[in-house]
Design brief:
This protein is mainly beta. It is built from four helices and eleven strands, in the order E-H-E-E-E-E-E-H-E-E-E-E-H-E-H.
Amino acid sequence: MKYLTIATTVAALAGASPGQAGAETISSSYSSTAPKACRMIGKPNEEDGSATRVCPGKYGLVVLINEGDLREVVSVGRNREAAAKEPAAQAWFSPFSSTGDTVEWRAADNKPFAIIQRWLIADNSEQDKRGGPVSRAMLAVTRLPPGAVCHIAYVDVAANPNANALARQAADEFARDFNCGKDSVKTIGQSGRSTALTKR
Protein backbone atom coordinates (compact mmCIF):
# COMPACT_ATOMS: atom_id res chain seq x y z
CA MET A 1 0.00 0.00 0.00
CA LYS A 2 1.35 3.44 -0.89
CA TYR A 3 1.33 6.31 1.56
CA LEU A 4 1.22 10.03 0.90
CA THR A 5 2.20 12.49 3.61
CA ILE A 6 0.34 15.79 3.71
CA ALA A 7 1.55 18.42 6.15
CA THR A 8 -1.38 20.74 6.36
CA THR A 9 -3.78 22.63 8.55
CA VAL A 10 -7.51 22.47 8.96
CA ALA A 11 -7.86 25.66 6.97
CA ALA A 12 -5.85 24.26 4.09
CA LEU A 13 -7.89 21.09 4.04
CA ALA A 14 -11.11 23.05 4.08
CA GLY A 15 -9.96 24.95 1.03
CA ALA A 16 -9.32 21.79 -0.99
CA SER A 17 -12.82 21.77 -2.44
CA PRO A 18 -14.17 25.33 -2.45
CA GLY A 19 -17.87 25.55 -1.71
CA GLN A 20 -18.43 21.84 -1.09
CA ALA A 21 -18.79 22.08 2.70
CA GLY A 22 -20.95 25.19 2.48
CA ALA A 23 -23.52 23.49 0.25
CA GLU A 24 -24.32 20.65 2.64
CA THR A 25 -24.82 19.91 6.32
CA ILE A 26 -22.11 17.63 7.71
CA SER A 27 -22.64 16.04 11.10
CA SER A 28 -21.14 13.47 13.47
CA SER A 29 -22.84 10.66 15.35
CA TYR A 30 -21.35 7.86 17.40
CA SER A 31 -21.69 4.12 17.97
CA SER A 32 -19.93 1.61 20.20
CA THR A 33 -17.81 -1.41 19.32
CA ALA A 34 -17.36 -2.49 22.94
CA PRO A 35 -17.84 -6.26 23.20
CA LYS A 36 -21.00 -5.83 25.30
CA ALA A 37 -22.57 -3.77 22.49
CA CYS A 38 -21.77 -6.34 19.80
CA ARG A 39 -22.68 -9.88 18.79
CA MET A 40 -19.90 -12.44 18.95
CA ILE A 41 -19.67 -14.81 15.99
CA GLY A 42 -18.85 -18.26 17.31
CA LYS A 43 -16.35 -18.72 20.12
CA PRO A 44 -12.85 -17.19 20.41
CA ASN A 45 -10.12 -19.49 19.14
CA GLU A 46 -8.42 -21.07 22.15
CA GLU A 47 -5.03 -21.19 20.44
CA ASP A 48 -4.56 -17.62 19.23
CA GLY A 49 -7.52 -15.78 20.77
CA SER A 50 -8.93 -14.84 17.37
CA ALA A 51 -12.52 -13.65 17.46
CA THR A 52 -15.11 -11.94 15.30
CA ARG A 53 -17.86 -9.60 16.42
CA VAL A 54 -20.52 -7.60 14.62
CA CYS A 55 -21.55 -4.27 16.11
CA PRO A 56 -24.57 -2.11 15.28
CA GLY A 57 -23.50 1.06 13.52
CA LYS A 58 -25.48 3.96 12.12
CA TYR A 59 -27.63 4.42 9.01
CA GLY A 60 -28.40 0.72 8.66
CA LEU A 61 -24.71 -0.27 8.59
CA VAL A 62 -22.82 -2.68 10.83
CA VAL A 63 -19.19 -2.68 11.98
CA LEU A 64 -17.28 -5.94 11.61
CA ILE A 65 -14.22 -6.48 13.82
CA ASN A 66 -11.93 -9.44 13.31
CA GLU A 67 -9.16 -10.04 15.82
CA GLY A 68 -6.35 -12.51 15.30
CA ASP A 69 -2.72 -12.77 16.40
CA LEU A 70 -3.22 -9.62 18.53
CA ARG A 71 -4.18 -7.56 15.48
CA GLU A 72 -7.56 -6.15 14.57
CA VAL A 73 -9.19 -5.25 11.28
CA VAL A 74 -12.37 -3.19 11.03
CA SER A 75 -14.82 -3.04 8.14
CA VAL A 76 -18.33 -1.72 7.50
CA GLY A 77 -21.22 -2.97 5.42
CA ARG A 78 -24.96 -3.56 5.25
CA ASN A 79 -24.33 -6.91 6.92
CA ARG A 80 -21.48 -9.08 8.11
CA GLU A 81 -20.99 -10.77 4.74
CA ALA A 82 -20.80 -7.49 2.83
CA ALA A 83 -18.36 -5.98 5.34
CA ALA A 84 -16.10 -9.04 5.13
CA LYS A 85 -15.67 -8.55 1.36
CA GLU A 86 -14.45 -4.95 1.63
CA PRO A 87 -10.77 -3.93 1.35
CA ALA A 88 -10.93 -2.64 4.93
CA ALA A 89 -11.44 -6.22 6.13
CA GLN A 90 -7.85 -6.93 5.00
CA ALA A 91 -6.31 -3.66 6.26
CA TRP A 92 -4.09 -5.01 9.02
CA PHE A 93 -0.89 -3.49 10.39
CA SER A 94 2.37 -5.34 10.94
CA PRO A 95 2.66 -4.40 14.65
CA PHE A 96 0.08 -5.61 17.15
CA SER A 97 -2.93 -3.32 17.04
CA SER A 98 -6.32 -2.72 18.63
CA THR A 99 -9.13 -0.21 18.27
CA GLY A 100 -11.03 2.04 20.63
CA ASP A 101 -14.66 1.36 21.47
CA THR A 102 -16.09 4.48 19.84
CA VAL A 103 -16.78 4.96 16.13
CA GLU A 104 -17.49 8.46 14.81
CA TRP A 105 -19.73 8.56 11.73
CA ARG A 106 -19.48 11.49 9.35
CA ALA A 107 -22.56 12.14 7.24
CA ALA A 108 -23.59 14.79 4.73
CA ASP A 109 -27.30 15.58 4.66
CA ASN A 110 -27.90 12.36 6.61
CA LYS A 111 -25.90 10.19 4.17
CA PRO A 112 -22.84 8.58 5.81
CA PHE A 113 -19.55 8.72 3.94
CA ALA A 114 -16.78 7.97 6.48
CA ILE A 115 -15.97 6.68 9.94
CA ILE A 116 -13.17 7.76 12.27
CA GLN A 117 -11.76 5.40 14.86
CA ARG A 118 -8.87 5.50 17.32
CA TRP A 119 -6.28 2.77 16.95
CA LEU A 120 -3.47 1.74 19.28
CA ILE A 121 -0.35 0.52 17.47
CA ALA A 122 2.28 -1.44 19.40
CA ASP A 123 5.76 0.12 19.32
CA ASN A 124 8.33 -2.58 20.01
CA SER A 125 11.12 -0.01 20.22
CA GLU A 126 9.98 1.03 23.69
CA GLN A 127 8.61 -0.95 26.64
CA ASP A 128 5.95 0.04 29.15
CA LYS A 129 6.11 -0.65 32.91
CA ARG A 130 4.82 -4.18 32.39
CA GLY A 131 7.55 -5.00 29.88
CA GLY A 132 5.28 -4.94 26.86
CA PRO A 133 5.48 -2.62 23.83
CA VAL A 134 4.26 0.95 24.28
CA SER A 135 1.02 1.74 22.45
CA ARG A 136 0.92 4.70 20.05
CA ALA A 137 -2.43 6.33 19.31
CA MET A 138 -3.60 7.04 15.79
CA LEU A 139 -6.87 8.04 14.16
CA ALA A 140 -7.87 6.11 11.04
CA VAL A 141 -10.38 7.52 8.56
CA THR A 142 -12.31 4.94 6.53
CA ARG A 143 -14.55 5.69 3.53
CA LEU A 144 -18.02 4.14 3.31
CA PRO A 145 -20.33 3.02 0.47
CA PRO A 146 -21.35 3.76 -2.19
CA GLY A 147 -18.07 2.40 -3.43
CA ALA A 148 -15.52 0.33 -1.56
CA VAL A 149 -14.76 0.56 2.15
CA CYS A 150 -11.08 1.27 2.87
CA HIS A 151 -8.70 3.40 4.91
CA ILE A 152 -8.10 6.82 3.37
CA ALA A 153 -6.09 8.71 6.01
CA TYR A 154 -4.16 8.39 9.26
CA VAL A 155 -3.55 11.06 11.90
CA ASP A 156 -0.91 10.71 14.62
CA VAL A 157 -2.58 11.72 17.90
CA ALA A 158 0.60 12.63 19.82
CA ALA A 159 2.02 14.75 16.99
CA ASN A 160 -1.20 16.72 16.35
CA PRO A 161 -3.05 18.45 19.22
CA ASN A 162 -5.97 18.97 16.81
CA ALA A 163 -6.00 15.35 15.64
CA ASN A 164 -9.79 14.96 15.81
CA ALA A 165 -10.37 18.09 13.74
CA LEU A 166 -7.82 16.97 11.17
CA ALA A 167 -9.42 13.55 10.88
CA ARG A 168 -12.87 15.08 10.37
CA GLN A 169 -11.57 17.44 7.72
CA ALA A 170 -9.80 14.57 5.95
CA ALA A 171 -13.04 12.58 5.97
CA ASP A 172 -15.06 15.52 4.68
CA GLU A 173 -12.66 16.45 1.90
CA PHE A 174 -11.20 13.15 0.70
CA ALA A 175 -13.48 10.21 1.54
CA ARG A 176 -16.14 10.47 -1.13
CA ASP A 177 -13.70 10.85 -4.03
CA PHE A 178 -11.12 8.35 -2.74
CA ASN A 179 -10.48 5.39 -5.06
CA CYS A 180 -9.67 2.30 -2.98
CA GLY A 181 -6.81 0.31 -4.46
CA LYS A 182 -5.66 3.22 -6.59
CA ASP A 183 -5.30 6.27 -4.37
CA SER A 184 -2.66 6.46 -1.64
CA VAL A 185 -3.57 6.50 2.03
CA LYS A 186 -2.72 9.96 3.34
CA THR A 187 -0.88 10.85 6.55
CA ILE A 188 -2.59 14.04 7.66
CA GLY A 189 -0.90 16.77 9.70
CA GLN A 190 2.46 16.09 11.31
CA SER A 191 3.68 12.53 10.94
CA GLY A 192 4.65 10.72 14.12
CA ARG A 193 5.61 7.36 15.52
CA SER A 194 2.14 5.80 15.17
CA THR A 195 1.78 6.70 11.49
CA ALA A 196 5.34 5.53 10.83
CA LEU A 197 4.42 2.13 12.31
CA THR A 198 1.58 1.69 9.80
CA LYS A 199 3.95 1.55 6.85
CA ARG A 200 4.75 -1.93 5.54
